[in-house]
Amino acid sequence: xxxxxxxxxxxxxxxxxxxxxxxxxxxxxxxxxxxxxxxxxxxxxxxxxxxxxxxxxxxxxxxxxxxxxxxxxxxxxxxxxxxxxxxxxxxxxxxxxxxxxxxxxxxxxxxxxxxxxxxxxxxxxxxxxxxxxxxxxxxxxxxxxxxxxxxxxxxxxxxxxxxxxxxxxxxxxxxxxxxxxxxxxxxxxxxxxxxxxxxxxxxxxxxxxxxxxxxxxxxxxxxx
Length: 224
Prior knowledge:
By secondary structure, the protein is an alpha+beta fold. Helices cover about 35% and strands about 15% of the residues. The chain has helices at about 5-20, 30-35, 50-55, 125-140, 145-175, and strands at about 60-65, 70, 75, 90-95, 100-110, 110-115.
């Protein structure tokens, strides 16, 4: 299950299942309680939706170097970082979204700076893809990695996945085209009782095995 699928599942579980199920303490459904009390409640929405998102994102601490900020073997840069150069070599808090590493958010005293990969040709990747690439490189004996190697590995892994998906779809189409050729199940003509020779021989007139008198038939012969 992907993160997007998990978010959808969680939303459906809350709004579709939990809110419609009778709560043991409320003795009714949360949806009914919400509908009757919503006008009395004072709802508070986040004043800054971006800051609300940032507060929930994971973070790392990094020192600003001369060429930018380095996170997950990716060099990030923003023009606003120039004004922080030469100051105390303290660590900055970097916020990132595991679903999209194409940007990071740098927390400073004057606000948030959005930094992107210094190489703007880099495709957007997920943290899961990054970890999978690192794992594959370690298994291949590569202990030291760099940004270029990471992205090449991710692109190669994406090509493998895309190729496998195309082959799977082709196989499904091929199977669908010849599904009508599959042999039909044979009719079971095996009698429910054992063969006559395996049954005991008839004994007397009361035997359940009655001899059949046969039928008269006409025989036709072709004239010479």
